[in-house]
Design a protein that fits this description.
alpha+beta, about 30% helix
Length: about 160
């Protein structure tokens, strides 16, 4: 299997249109027409290299195949916790091949390097990935008309 290479999106600005299309396709209710999010604005914010927010992109065979962000803004139900891992995305044809795990490990290392002792993630889908990675369930909440699980991890 070809190794996954992780880079900061601050170093790969030419990928912003691709990343934007991923976010808009994966989270249509948020980033699509009529949604409250703005993928382009968020990606520009994630282009930070020296702090939160920041974004990482995964490559396999030299091609972008995934993305993850470390965010400073709070999750609505748990505003006292920070930072948050979010926008985790892997190309659908490449899922379940360890790319998400590599992205998660890389963002954990970034948070550790920035001095954080804990990180958090809210998800409605990635339970198994987080639990296999040593994350623990904190809470289950209703978020944007769906059930979300809030996880934490000590670094």
């Amino acid at each position: 299997m070809n190794p996954v290479v992780i880079e900061h999106i601050s170093e790969r600005q030419e990928l912003l249109p691709t990343l934007q299309s991923w976010l808009e396709a994966e989270w249509t209710a948020h980033y699509g027409p009529g949604g409250q999010g703005n993928a382009q604005r968020d990606l520009l914010a994630y282009s930070n290299r020296r702090g939160v927010p920041l974004g990482l992109v995964a490559f396999r065979h030299g091609k972008p195949c995934g993305f993850i962000a470390l965010k400073g803004e709070p999750f609505p139900s748990h505003p006292h916790l920070a930072p948050w891992v979010g926008a985790g995305y892997v190309e659908p044809s490449l899922r379940n091949q360890g790319i998400g795990r590599e992205l998660l490990l890389a963002v954990e290392e970034e948070a550790r390097t920035l001095g954080y002792a804990h990180i958090y993630c809210a998800t409605s889908a990635s339970f198994s990935l987080l639990e296999r990675g040593g994350w623990h369930l904190i809470d289950r909440v209703q978020h944007e008309s769906q059930q979300a699980s809030v996880y934490g991890k000590a670094l």
